[in-house]
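Lab notebook, bench 4. Still working through the backlog of constructs that have no structural model yet. Next entry is a single chain of 362 residues. Request: give me the C-alpha cells for it.
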Amino acid sequence: MNEFLISIGIRGNLEVGFLPVVLIFLTAMAVTWLFIPRVRDYAVERGLGDKPNERRLNKELLPNVGGLTIFAGVIAAMVLAIAIKPLLLATVNIQLLSIALGGAIMVLVGFIDDQFELPSLFRIVVQALCAGLLIVNGIRIDITWLPMWADVILTVIWVVGITNAVNLLDGIDGNVGGLGFITAMSLLALSAQFSTRGAATLLLAALAGACLGFLRHNFNPSRIILGDAGATFIGFTLAAVSMLGTLKVGAAASVLAPVVILLVPILDTTQVTIRRILSGKRPDTPGKDHLHHMLLARGFDQRRSVVTLWTATLALSVISMLLQRVNPVVIILSVVITVAALAFVAQQRILEVKRTAAKLET
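Model written out:
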C-alpha cells in the first residue's frame, strides 16, 4: 500500500505526483464553483457591488466579491495539500505562509477599496510592503549576475507591477479569471518539470482550479465579478509563485519565461501608462484605453474580446514553454487541457443563461 501511495505521489519526499495536483485543482474549483452563489446572494442583499456608471458596462448592481471565493478555494486546496504532502510543504512552509498572508492582505485591502475607494498611493504602498514580506522570507528574483540590492528592487517592481497590471485588465467579464487560469496552468507546466518546485506546483494547481470555478459564474454575462480583491489577489499570487524557483536562475530564457507568459497585462499597463502621461493625465486615472476597450471599440462583443485576449495569453504561454525547452508532448497536453476546461465552463454558463431565458418566456 505504501509503495502504491508513493507511486501516485501521495507519499514520498519532495516529488509531486499527478494525483495530488489533480486533487488540489479539483478541490479549489469545487469550493469556488459551489460557494459563489451563496456569496453572490449575500452581496446582492447587502448592496456590495459595482453600480452602473458611464465607465462600467453593467446595467445593474453587479456583486464585486468574487475574489473572496477564489481566496477561499485556494486556501481550502492548500489545507488539503498540507495533509497530502506534509514533508514537501514543511520545507517551504514560511514561504507559502508569506504568500498566503500577502494574498490575504491583498484580498482585505481590495475588498475595502471595492466598497470605499482607497487612495491609489495607499494601495501601492501596501503592495510594496507585501513584496517586502516575500523578500524577507526568501522569495525574490535572484539573477546571478546582479547585486542583491538590484534583485530586491526588481522584486518590488515585479510584484507591484504584475499585481496592478492584472487588476487593470479586469474590465470585461471573464478576462482576468481566464488570464489567471491560463497563466497558472502554464506556470504549472513549467514548474512540474522540476522536482524541487513541488510547492509552487501545488499552489499553482490551487489557483488554476479556483479561477476555473469562478469562470463558471463570470463568463459573459457574468453574475459576479472579482473586484479589486480578487484581481489583486490573482496578480500578487502569480507574481509571487513565479519566484518560487522559476525566476531563481541565471539562464536568460528562464528569467524571461514568466515575463512572456504575463506579457498581455504587462503590455496593456505599459501602453495605458504611456498614453495617459503623454495626454497629461495621471496613470491611475480611470479611462477606456485598455486592450479590451480597444477590441470593444472595433466592434467585438465581450465574449469575442475576452476570447481574443485568452488566445493571446495562451499563445505567449506556448512561446514561454518553448523557450524553456519543455517537452512538446507536455506543451500540447497543457494547451488541450486548458482550452477544453475554458470551453467547458463557458458552455456551462451559456447553457445556464439559455435556461434562465427559457423560464422567463414561459
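Notes after review: Residues 2-361 form one domain. Residues 4-14, 246-252 have pLDDT under 50 and may be disordered. Flag for follow-up if needed.
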